[in-house]
Design goal:
mainly alpha, two-stranded antiparallel ribbon, 62% helix
Length: 114
């Protein structure tokens, strides 16, 4: 059984919160900002990126903050961190196109005349 140090506890994102973030990323982003004790502020140098991320790409913003805390070193983000951010970006972009009228299933009424 691994014993986590207090610093590792701050950097670890709970699994339930991560799963909840995929479904409701803006709510989780708000909760992490509210209760995260500076978690987002340490990952982003400017608050404008947090606001833009909240509006346009919330899951990517969360993934970048997680990657900066868990998958970065002195030189910057490691390749696995960039992969996590890229996957979150694809999920964010994929969720934007879901309301296109062509992709909605419509119930068609077929009238048969004898």
């Amino acid at each position: 059984m691994a014993i986590l140090t207090p610093l590792a506890n701050l950097a670890a994102m709970p699994l339930l919160l991560g799963c909840f973030a995929v479904i409701f990323p803006r709510i989780v982003l708000f909760l992490v900002w509210l209760f995260g004790n500076g978690y987002l502020e340490r990952a982003f140098k400017s608050a404008i990126w947090l606001v833009l991320g909240f509006v346009f790409l919330p899951l990517t913003t969360l993934a970048y903050a997680y990657s900066m805390h868990s998958w970065s070193d002195v030189s910057g983000l490691r390749p696995l961190g960039w992969l996590i951010v890229a996957l979150a970006f694809l999920i964010d972009i994929g969720s934007l196109g879901g309301n296109h009228p062509r992709y909605r299933r419509r119930r068609e009424v077929v009238v048969v005349r004898d």
